[in-house]
DNA sequence: GTGAAAGCGCTAACAA
DNA sequence: TTGTTAGCGCTTTCAC
């Protein structure tokens, strides 16, 4: 009775569950090792056997168990990407670039979201040690306070490639855009168009990206010998409503700025909303240049000049180096180098 | 002092690639099974031993090997989500909703992108059989031509929950928004605002979502007894440039439409661009309602009325049901049911 | 050209 | 309460 019950379960399992190499081997009267070799196109297996094996595998839709293979091989053919904000369009484009290269080389990609939180980032990184990924592409969660978890990962021979918010105190390949130069170009645009009072809108985190952009803003003023007051560099938090309120106040003032460089998309939009809301007709008198990747900058009126990062290219460049290195196994990923990919500045003038 | 001891142990293992349960067991003079049980907080292990084990594990930053565990347990504590377009903002919000619930329950999430391509989707699904995920949340790649791969997955006891572009011929839980109703409301808005000649802009795929929106458009006209000509239902491909050209032509005509319902964000934007480009001053005479999740609709002029899907909620609802079912192991995921979460219609009027 | 057997790291049934 | 052992599915020596 008990036996029948078990037999029944076994049969049910046999049809319903997964096909393994062992099942194939039994059906074909071969050893599992032979089947494995045949499926991996080993040269020591006869063409005839290979054909038999592959045919049956296809017919039964055999899929190798990723975990068994990963355990045995000690690698996963998977790379991980850690971004600070999964919903952000910029990072999505980077991810798409990475994924495209991965797919082309038979790698899988797992996306992790650090929510701009170092604690979360650490959790992700240490979890990665479970062998889930062979390598990591990442943009830091926030200000670079802690790096032990990154060094730890590298010591475990899991290479890291950094992009955008790169680490300063960890060696490795770093892919960035020309943030300072781009901010410089954007600011010069404002100044050359006649802006007399420009402001820089930055997020209050001390991210390397924000710093670079601020430097570019200052650099342009210095070069054109235009004095900058303290009130020209503004810092904002993450609360959009509050930010907009501050900006509205700014634009209501009589000595309001006539040129704005926004170092983040959300700040550019907040500035734009604040301008739109000012009842006195200032919008057209204030030029805005914003770092952004949004697809609708050309639809706004007055138009928003933009600095767009080459996100997709950034991602595919990272992945290309990574996978190449993973394959030849000779690459030294701790080599410190920086690759700069230029942003695209688009000036848009009001038609009115 | 104790700490120093642990640090010493750490150094001793520093060159070894990874810490395993076996390493811990040796250091502690315990069996691997004891260590395993201690780490999993088994009740049959003494508190003292537990403490010793957990302390060392922490000090060495032990991380269990995900592949070994997955292989042994035959489950991965991971769920997969398959979306047609990873870069699309709507799907990103859904993903965020799913991820939030997953994290809260200790599940990992892997995102797969089908690129709106059924062949790609099949590849993903069959690859999933490798045991990488315990369950799947998905929105179909395209028109529902093929479903064997989905049924296959279900037969392998991997539950699927559908959302947005749901399957008609596969049983299961289906989470959707009220597309027909939302389109109906949007269209009625246009008609009540006095539009005499309305057009529906849809993508030419036959997705269930597009169909429902089209139905809503027609329903509103029928209800208000306003006749619809053939030329009122327009279908577009995926080439934005070409779409915009077609729309420009449309708006240049003397008998141009004065109301537009766009069933996809990209079409709404193309229509908007086309309107902005027409030299004759038509923009303000044409009202546009678009399905969209973009964050800047309020910045446009003339304003764009929008129908936004509750993407995050959709995602978290799917994940909640899924994980609950995975946990109690009693849920029948082949039960056919539909959960409708309402969209949000926002009417925006021109201030001019 | 093919088979037998070991072992990747983990958990659980069974022993003690 | 702890130890011994088997085995998840796969690849890879080492035999033959």
UniProtKB/TrEMBL annotation, chains A, B:
Transmembrane segments: none
GO MF annotation, one: DNA-binding transcription factor activity
SMART domains linked: HTH_LACI (SM00354)
InterPro entries for this protein: HTH_LacI (IPR000843), LacI/GalR-like_sensor (IPR046335), Lambda_DNA-bd_dom_sf (IPR010982), Peripla_BP_I (IPR028082)
Organism expressing this protein natively: Belliella pelovolcani
Name this polypeptide is given: Transcriptional regulator, LacI family
Keywords: DNA-binding, Transcription, Transcription regulation
Pfam family, any one: LacI
CDD domains in the record: HTH_LacI, PBP1_LacI_sugar_binding-like
Residue ranges occupied by any HTH lacI-type domain in the UniProt entry: 19-73
């Amino acid at each position: 009775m008990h036996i029948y019950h078990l037999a029944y379960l076994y049969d049910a399992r046999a049809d319903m569950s997964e096909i393994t190499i062992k099942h194939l081997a039994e059906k074909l009267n071969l050893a599992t090792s032979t089947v494995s070799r045949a499926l991996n196109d080993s040269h020591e297996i006869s063409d005839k056997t290979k054909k038999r094996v592959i045919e049956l595998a296809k017919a039964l839709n055999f899929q190798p168990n990723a975990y068994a293979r990963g355990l045995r091989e000690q690698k996963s053919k998977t790379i991980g990407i850690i971004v600070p904000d999964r919903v952000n369009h910029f990072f999505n484009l980077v991810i798409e670039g990475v994924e495209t290269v991965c797919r082309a080389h038979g790698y899988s990609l797992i996306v992790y979201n650090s929510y701009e939180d170092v604690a979360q980032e650490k959790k992700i990184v240490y979890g990665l040690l479970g062998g889930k990924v062979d390598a990591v592409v990442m943009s830091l969660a926030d200000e670079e306070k802690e790096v032990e978890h990154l060094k730890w990962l590298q010591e475990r021979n899991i290479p890291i490639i950094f992009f955008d918010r790169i680490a300063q105190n960890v060696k490795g390949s770093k892919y960035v855009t020309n943030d300072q130069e781009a901010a410089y170009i954007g600011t010069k645009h404002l100044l050359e168009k006649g802006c007399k009072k420009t402001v820089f809108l930055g997020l209050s985190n001390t991210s390397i990206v924000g710093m670079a952009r601020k430097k570019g803003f200052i650099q342009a003023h210095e070069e054109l010998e235009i004095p900058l007051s303290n009130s020209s560099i503004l810092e904002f938090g993450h609360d959009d409503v509050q930010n907009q309120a501050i900006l509205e106040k700014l634009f209501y003032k009589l000595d309001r700025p006539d040129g704005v460089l926004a170092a983040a998309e959300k700040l550019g939009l907040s500035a734009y909303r604040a301008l739109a809301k000012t009842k006195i007709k200032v919008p057209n008198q204030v030029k805005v240049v914003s770092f952004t990747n949004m697809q609708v900058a050309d639809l706004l009126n007055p138009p928003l000049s933009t600095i767009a990062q080459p996100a997709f290219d950034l991602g595919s460049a990272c992945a290309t180096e990574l996978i190449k290195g993973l394959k030849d196994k000779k690459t030294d990923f701790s080599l410190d180098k920086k690759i700069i990919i230029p942003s695209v500045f688009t000036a848009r003038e009001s038609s009115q």
